[in-house]
């Protein structure tokens, strides 16, 4: 039987109080170690568990501010964890980690009381941003049932697959939507063509990197055809979603 582990916060910055107490539930040791270590370094107190039973016990014992919960666990799934906690009166916010493209998982998770979700493979920056967004909503008492990503005047709704630029709807293909989502989840970070192929084409695409150029061009025509231009090319390096220097500040 796996045992929940609680490790004191050791974030850079010394003795400052942790930003929040998190329970991270993941049965893959490498993912758990990477995620928990990164969250501790960022400034969170982290408790870990590797199965559903220990997750329920840890949540009841430690009363975390938020639970990062993998859907697939060895004993019972993350949805059952949330049902058991909710039936016991716990209203701890939950960020689900779901399998790639598992749309039904996302809908089910939000329906039973989850607050948001991140799909695998995920970036650590996206997980941290979503944790903070959920905590902010909970603390401010602002309901936000539909997960949205926002950068500048671009909005992306992950449930309805709708996109807006400057308040106007933009029609994207499924692959264009995934590409924009990947850019928005990594805003400000330069992404190589290889990284984009891996994440947008789910690691199983064997074509050449020219497909990335074609889709970026198509995405620019649809969502980046007004000022300020937000998708930038770094020749020989990759692409980055960011505000142009003359528009910042």
From TrEMBL:
Which GO biological-process labels does this protein carry? regulation of DNA-templated transcription
Query: What are the GO cellular component annotations?
Result: cytosol; protein-DNA complex
Which Pfam families does the entry link to?
Answer: Response_reg, Trans_reg_C
Response regulatory domain location: 21-135
Q: Which residues bind DNA?
A: 146-243
Superkingdom of this entry's organism? Bacteria
- List the keywords (alphabetical): DNA-binding, Phosphoprotein, Transcription, Transcription regulation, Two-component regulatory system
Q: Which GO terms describe its molecular function?
A: phosphorelay response regulator activity; transcription cis-regulatory region binding
The record's section on SMART domains has: REC, Trans_reg_C
Show where the OmpR/PhoB-type domain sits. 146-243
Which positions bear 4-aspartylphosphate? Answer: 70
UniProt keyword annotation of Transcription regulation present: yes
Please tell me whether the keyword Lyase is annotated for this protein.
Answer: no
Gene3D superfamilies in UniProt: 3.40.50.2300, 6.10.250.690, Winged helix-like DNA-binding domain superfamily/Winged helix DNA-binding domain (1.10.10.10)
| PANTHER family associated with the record | REGULATOR OF RPOS, TRANSCRIPTIONAL REGULATORY PROTEIN TCRX-RELATED
**What is the protein name stated in its UniProt record?**
DNA-binding response regulator
Q: Can you name the source organism?
A: Actinomadura rubrobrunea
Q: What is the lineage of its organism?
A: Bacteria, Bacillati, Actinomycetota, Actinomycetes, Streptosporangiales
């Amino acid at each position: 039987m796996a045992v929940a582990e609680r490790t004191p916060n050791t974030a850079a910055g010394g003795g400052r109080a942790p930003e929040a107490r998190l329970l991270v539930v993941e049965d893959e040791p490498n993912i758990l170690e990477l995620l928990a270590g990164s969250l501790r370094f960022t400034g969170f107190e982290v408790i870990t568990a590797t199965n559903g039973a220990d997750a329920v016990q840890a949540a009841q014992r430690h009363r975390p501010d938020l639970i990062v919960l993998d859907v697939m666990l060895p004993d019972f799934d993350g949805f059952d964890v949330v049902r058991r906690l909710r039936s016991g009166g716990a209203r701890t916010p939950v960020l689900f980690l779901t399998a790639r493209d598992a749309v039904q998982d996302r809908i089910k998770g939000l329906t039973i009381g989850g607050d948001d979700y991140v799909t695998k493979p995920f970036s650590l920056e996206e997980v941290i941003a979503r944790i903070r967004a959920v905590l902010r909503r909970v603390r401010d008492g602002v309901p936000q049932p539909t997960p949205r990503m926002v950068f500048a005047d671009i909005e992306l709704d992950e449930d309805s697959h709708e996109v807006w630029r400057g308040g106007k709807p933009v029609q994207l293909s499924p692959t264009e939507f995934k590409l924009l989502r990947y850019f928005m989840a990594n805003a400000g970070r330069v992404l190589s063509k290889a990284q984009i192929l891996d994440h947008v084409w789910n690691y199983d695409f064997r074509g050449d990197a020219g497909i990335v150029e074609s889709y970026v061009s198509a995405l620019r025509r649809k969502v980046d055809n007004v000022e300020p231009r937000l998708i930038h090319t770094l020749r020989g390096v990759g692409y980055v979603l960011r505000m142009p220097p003359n528009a910042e500040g």
